[in-house]
Every structure is written in structure tokens, then in C-alpha cells.
């Protein structure tokens, strides 16, 4: 359907085509009539609400998402803050094709650069984003110079290090919501990995690229990208290496995340079941190319997320009680996102005090990570709006920490 500029107008048109009243649509979607009236009147809605409407109407979720021009915004200074990162990812080059402005000039020392890249990865997983923002531009510039200055096997190794650094930059930029620059970094990371024939490293870059695209609402593209890439890299189970299993499994998880958001529950379950096959084969968490952990714990944490998107907080909480023990540790960010889903589910079932405890623990242990999460702001806003009594001190602290206007 075309000719409508907002989801509310599209929703009203399709409802009327079907001959349904607002009350009937609300009943079929499991929503209140007030929600339908607000959306049709131009109000916004959460993704899970749009998904419930899409399911009731027999369309895909992205049917409600139409491209348009962004609203004018006041410059928040992010362009200047990211200037060094942008210059490193997209460096100017001279007549000889070599990047200008490299950090280490003629000082070529690949082992030292590789060690620094490993340390930068540790800094990322420790949520030390300010430190990472200061370190990464110089490391990426150095990697550019190493790639251009070295030949033979050393050139291959330099490209592997640069790919890892660009992948790390992409993950950091997604966290701080600089998605377009993240996509550029990740595409270049994938190009480096493909050029040296490192399929797991390339798959890790594609997986991270899919994460950025999910945040941009590009669900059909993500599913197609990850499903096709997973078909390409699918290993033979009898001979698969841990990296191959992890790469394949993560691609399937991203495909599942995209499908469930686009009202394709059956396909989402199929992708997740295949990812579980890879995780079971591994038996415990495995570090993929120094970027992602994959295994039984990581896959199990996707179940509550998918359940919440389907509007089933009860199933999400049940899934969180079935996380495997003794199978190693997943990435901190994966665990933190599952904790946010737990808080959201607790709000939905009415346990606001427990939800506050979960959010407060996240703030105390991973505050640097939490302050960049839109999901944290959404859950906290929902929690506050569900209160019938004055906010507790802990809840007021969360509101202040996340800079919310309630």
C-alpha cells in the first residue's frame, strides 16, 4: 500500500479495508482500544505493538515503517567528537594510494600493533568507552600504514589486525549510536577479512553489520543477508572448527532476531533451532575472532528477547531460568541485554520493585554501557509510568542517571 506518510494512516486504511472497528482490531491484536486510537491519531508505538498489529492484520511489521526525511535537529556536537574516528576509518590518501596522517609514520612493528589491538578489545568489554575512543583512531591509522608498508605474509597479518580493529570500531560506534559510520567500518573490516580468506573473521563483521542494520529497522535486509551468508559458510558438522560453528551460529541468531521483529515467528524459530545445533556441537562458549562469544549460553539468551518481542513476558522470564550452567561465560554486553529484557518482562508482569533492582544492578556494574542503551531508557520510562505511588529513591536515581524527563 502506498500514499500514506505515517503508520497511523496506514493502520486506519487497512483496518477499514477489512471492515473492522477499532475495538475489533484491538481485540484481535490483544491491545486496548485506546492504543489503536492513539496510533491512528498520529501517536508512536513500540516495535512489539506494531508487530502485534501486523500479526492481527496479516502483514509484515515493516509494512508500517515508511522512509522519510529526518526531522531537523540541533547539532549535538557528535560530529566533532567523532572527527578523529571518522578520519581514521576514512583516511585521506596521497598520490601513491597510501593513507596520510598515520600515527606511527615509518615505525613498523606488527607484533606491537597486534598486542595493542588485543588490549583495545579488553577495554571495549570492560565498558571503558571513553578510553577506547581515545585509543582506536591512532591504532586504526597505524594499521593502515602497516598494511600499505608490508608485503607477503606480514601484509596478510596486518590486514587481519586492521580487520579486527575496524570491527571493534564498528561495535563501539553502534554502542554510541553512530550507525552510519559503524557500517562503513564494518564493511571495510569484512573486505579485509575476505581478502585474506579468513571466513570466520569476515562472518563476524557481517554479524556486527547486521546488528547495526537491526537498529536501523532494516529487518528484511538483515534476514536476507544473514540467511544467505549462513548458507554460504555452513560447515560440515563432522569437521567443523569452533570458529566455523560460532560464525555460522551468530549469523543464524541475527537472522532470527530480524525475522521475529518482522512478524515471521516460524522462520525465527527455525533459525534459532539451527543456532542451537551449532551451540550444542560446541558444548561451551567460544571466542569468535576475538569479537563475539558464541555457545549454549549466548543462544539461550536470545529466547527471552524473542519472547518479549512476541509480547510474552511470562515466557521470557521462564526462559531466563533455563540458562545453561557450566558452559562458560558469554560477552558482558549479551548478558546485559538479557538483563534489560528481564527488567522489561518484570515491569510487564507488575513486579516493579524487582525490575528496579535489576536496573539498579546494571547501573552499578555496567553504568558506562547502560547510559548508551535506548532500551534502558524505554524500560525505565515504562516502569515509572506503571507506578501508582511516588518513585522510590532508587527509581529517581535511574531517571536522573538516564537523563529522562518524566
From TrEMBL:
<dbReference type="GO" id="GO:0003677">
    <property type="term" value="F:DNA binding"/>
</dbReference>
<dbReference type="InterPro" id="IPR010982">
    <property type="entry name" value="Lambda_DNA-bd_dom_sf"/>
</dbReference>
<feature type="domain" description="HTH cro/C1-type">
    <location>
        <begin position="11"/>
        <end position="64"/>
    </location>
</feature>
<dbReference type="InterPro" id="IPR001387">
    <property type="entry name" value="Cro/C1-type_HTH"/>
</dbReference>
<dbReference type="InterPro" id="IPR011990">
    <property type="entry name" value="TPR-like_helical_dom_sf"/>
</dbReference>
<protein>
    <submittedName>
        <fullName>Transcriptional regulator, XRE family</fullName>
    </submittedName>
</protein>
<dbReference type="Pfam" id="PF01381">
    <property type="entry name" value="HTH_3"/>
</dbReference>
